[in-house]
Structures are given as C-alpha cells and as structure tokens.
Amino acid sequence: MQKRISSKSTRSSIHKGTEVRYNSEWLGKLSSYEVIQLCGKYRLARMLEHEDFRSRLANNQPIAVHELLYSLFQGYDSVALKADVELGATEQKFNLLVGREVQREYGQPSQVVFTMPILVGLDGQRKMSKSLGNYVGITEAPSQMFGKLMSISDEMMWAYMDLLTDRTPAQIAQLRAQVESGAAHPKATKVALAVEIIAGFTAPKPRRTLPTSSTLSTVTPTPLTNANVRFQRGRRCKALEAH
Which end of the chain is more exposed for a tag (fewer CB within 10 A), N or C? Predict the structure, then answer.
C-alpha cells in the first residue's frame, strides 16, 4: 500500500515544511473489528461500479476480496488525515471519490479532489512505474536520467513537456509548430527538455530554456504516477505514496 521514501529522495523532491506520512501509521493499527466497521461504510453496489470490476464481472472473471479493500483503505487515509484536498492521477479517480464518501460516513466534510493525467513511461504505452521498468528515477544520476529521457520518442516529448514543465498549452503548441516547420530541431528540443526536467530534481543551477521565440520561466513539478498528495486542514501538506 505504500512506497518507502529514502532520505535522499525526500531531500531532493519534497519541499521543506512538507510532512511525509506513511499510511501504515493508521492502517497497521486497525483491529479486525475496525476493518469490518470500515467495510460497513461503503456499499458493494457502488464498489462494483468501478470500470475494472464491472468489466471483469461481465466477462465472468474473478475478483478477490482484497481488491475491494484497497479502495476502502485508500479512502480511510483521507479520514485519518482529515484531508481537505487530495491530488491524484486520473486512474485514481474512483478511489479518490471513495475517500469523499468514507469521510462523510465518519462525520467529516468531503475532501476536494483534483486529478491529473498519468505520465506515460519510457515504453510509450504504459504508465510510468518502477515495477514495469519504464521509469526515470528522480534520485538517479543526472547522466542516467538524461539517457532515459533522450530515449523517448519525439512525439512523447510533448506530453512530458506538458506534464513536467510549467509551459502553457499555447507555448508548447508554438514550439511544436517550430519543430514541425523545421525552425527548431527535435533533438535539440528534447535535449533542452531533458536538462530542464533533470534540473528540477538536482541542486539549483542556471537552467537551459527550450528554444522558443522568447525566454520562459521554468519550474518543474514532481511527476504524478501513483502518488497522492493530501492537504490536511490547518496543518502542513501530507505526501503519501501508494502502490
């Protein structure tokens, strides 16, 4: 349910003042009685509305009980943190909404949910994931990160630019038009993009900007894979990374 964060990655990717919490702090303490109580907070019919479950039922494919518990436990994370806002990838939308309903069942106001697109991995097909081996590690050596980023296709670099930089859609469209017209070289554009992304996870250095008609500021946010970031009312940001 959780991903251990090394001290090195915490230093490099999590802003000072951010409090990192592991859901084992509360899930590990739930008694069997409390787990049954949690199960009573959500309806099976609603759970089976999940696209994956619905499809498997239609095709007479098995669904294990622990798969149903995953969404409930993730929803309970929001209860434990008294979350006001939860940010997650689009594939987590169902689980995020479960969190809203579970919060109401525990007498809490429902959190606001924000979703963002999934970052496709280096294979160009599946979401970026360490278990799939198609990832760029944010604590890897810059040279290794650079090599991986340069391996993506020219077409994929626009999605990376969209999700990993602060450039507006209009700015990206303008640069793409320059590449397609021959005014800018795709390899040079990808090199500059890779440098820009790497700079977001290493010590502050003067950043190379992508070749555009004007100089644009660059602030690179952490990519979303399965990470969920929750904000607790009256307290600091809570970062929870879950498989």
Answer: C
* 44 and 108 assigned to the same domain: yes
pTM, whole model, 2 decimals?
Answer: 0.65
Residue reference for tokens 């929001």? 78
Range of the domain at 138: 119-223
Q: Could you give the number of structural domains in the chain?
A: 2
Per DSSP, 220 falls in state -
CA distances to 156, 165, 180, 218 from 199, rounded to whole Å, are: 20, 11, 26, 10
Question: Distance between alpha carbon 233 and the CA centroid of its chain, in Å?
Answer: 21
For 188-236, the pLDDT digits (tens) are: 999 999 999 999 887 665 555 555 544 434 444 444 444 444 444 443 3
